[in-house]
Specification:
By secondary structure, this protein is of the alpha/beta class. It has one domain: DsrEFH-like (Hypothetical Protein Ychn, Chain: A, 3-Layer(aba) Sandwich), CATH 3.40.1260.10. 50% of the residues lie in helices and 16% in strands. It has a five-stranded parallel sheet with strand order 4-3-2-1-5, sandwiched between helices. Helix 5 links the parallel strand 3 and strand 4. Helix 2 runs parallel beside helix 4. The longest helix is centred in the N-terminal third of the chain and has 27 residues. It starts with 5 loop residues before the first helix and ends with a strand.
Length: 154
């Protein structure tokens, strides 16, 4: 019996999600058009990261409905929300969900104030690089709303 590694499983899942998105995006493009959206996460994940799993599912459902090509979608994380990317550091459902969203051009902006106050390094987070860090999460939310992004708090 052939064993499949996590990389193969992730790639298959991501391809499946993109296929679903492309099937529905033709219909959705007419209904929803292009969208610019910012999701705001600043809460703890709860038992077994259920709240984070729900938020990631909301974002994926949004992509499936509108189509990745029709979305400019950002996630701003600050405060207790930082534990989303700490949880994603370990292999599992949260990591798979974040990786899948990133593969669909969803960007994650992380608050520098939160990193400093919680003494968290970007290396402690899943795939966070210097260009993902913004000076202030709340200021980033206001900035994006000024640029026409619709605010959603899952």
């Amino acid at each position: 019996m052939r064993k499949f590694g996590m990389g193969f499983i992730f790639a298959s899942f991501a391809a499946f999600m993109m296929l679903i998105g492309s099937v529905t995006s033709a219909d959705a493009a007419g209904r929803y058009g292009k969208q610019k959206v910012v999701y705001h996460i600043n809460y703890p994940g709860g038992k077994d990261d259920k709240k984070y799993a729900g938020a990631m599912r909301n974002i994926q459902n949004h992509i499936n409905a509108v189509g990745a090509k029709n979305l400019d979608l950002k996630v701003v994380i600050h405060g207790n929300g930082i534990s989303l990317l700490q949880s994603a550091k370990a292999p599992g459902k949260i990591q798979s969900a974040v990786a899948s969203l990133k593969s669909q051009n969803v960007s994650f902006a992380v608050c520098a104030n939160t990193l400093a106050s919680k003494k968290v390094k970007s290396d402690d987070l899943y795939e966070v690089f210097d260009n993902d860090i913004v000076p202030s999460g709340v200021a980033e939310l206001a900035y994006l709303q000024q640029k026409g992004y619709t605010y959603i708090k899952p």
